[in-house]
Amino acid sequence: MKLKLSWIKLAPPQILVLGFAGIILIGALLLSLPIANTTGEPLPFIDALFTATSATCVTGLVVVDTGTFFSLFGQIVIIVLIQVGGLGFMTMATLFSLMLKRKISLRDRLLLQEAMNQNTMEGIVRLIRKVLLFTFVIEGIGAVLLSIRWAFDMPFGKALYFGVFHAVSMFNNAGFDLFGGYRSLTGYVYDPLVNFVVMFLIVSGGIGFIVLSDIVDFRIKRRLSLHSKVVLSMTAFLIIFGTIIIFIFEYSNQRTLGSLNGGGKFLGALFQSVTTRTAGANTLVIGDMRQASHFFMVILMFIGASPGSTGGGIKTTTFTIMIGAVISMLRGRDDIVMFRYRLAQERIFKALTITLLSLLLIIGVVMVLSSTEDASFLMILYETTSAFGTVGLSMGLTTELSVIGKLLICLTMFSGRLGLITLAYALGPKKGKQLFRHPEGKIIIG
Fold this sequence. Notes:
Layout: H1 12-31, H2 45-56, H3 66-69, H4 72-87, H5 89-99, H6 106-115, H7 124-150, H8 156-171, H9 192-206, H10 209-221, H11 226-250, H12 262-275, H13 291-303, H14 316-330, E1 337-338, E2 341-342, H15 345-372, H16 377-388, H17 403-418, H18 420-427
Antiparallel strand pairs: 1-2
Helix pairs in contact: 1-2, 1-4, 1-6, 1-18, 2-4, 2-17, 7-8, 7-9, 7-10, 8-9, 9-12, 10-11, 11-12, 11-13, 13-16, 14-15, 15-16, 15-17, 16-17
């Protein structure tokens, strides 16, 4: 008699949520072991849970210093969680299935479709193969270049380890670093090689695997999909616009860009513009930046990376659709048209839903944290948005969070990584198609 497993009846969103939660729990248990840190004492479970959530959700917010507190074992656990969390546990499971030459079942394909945010299962296994290839090639290139650079500053073995760790961390937009003292990459603000290699890793992981596949296939197809055009154009705009705004706001700030020369000013502004879009590394001290810059960075963190990527936020495509809807309304047009393509109404409703749910989540968490934490409103808003966008930048609040604050930020990171739509479907799977329509009514707006 065959044993029927109840979890088999779960919907794909529910399996994804439970899968990520399971990985986080395993990571928390491993990080709480005495062998995982340099003190030899067990890490409090709430701190282990926070670190595991931050790593699996590729965020980078930390309550203890990764480079000095965790042992080699703990750091390896963190980087494995980052890789699994960045690619998704279903992608990793598919990797092992392919290595063992096992057939990918229909149910696995449905899960992969949900995990990769695709509209169809067609070509999903081929896409996963590309995802794995792109990941290991790009991370490998980044690891080699960073290792060569850091070999001038430290023993080669350590430089190689640092190169691999930071290549994986940055490609997955995690922001974890090993330099100690919560310094991140502030010691390399003038270094063009470190800056551009890390930015390349961040952008490559942030534009999404669909776009990477389109770019690689461009020499054959000689065209890009609408999705890739929107992602690449909006990504370029946000990076350039963000660089200009940060450069202007921080130009005379002697604690940040004001103390740097011309090249350092440009690299500092450019790096912070790139990393704010869900990466979490920084070459300027975030807490020393002006309030105007902090608030502008909150907006960039809220937008985040692109669909099917290792980043979070509402995504560049959602933001583009919302802007397109405003422009179409102001011009009196019924359709949103991008690159000569009309967007379906269902896409517009989804973008609106994601944006509104995200705003409500951030507002709710900020309101609660304002009651539980002894910090300014802007600092709490910055921390919450950083957690939701899986960015990892902090003005210094993370290490001071209360137990309630840590749990709320964990929940926010989890929601930001999986997506609020996925969570909503997991809590209450969508029903069948509605077979009737109500009569049309009119409401006065504006």
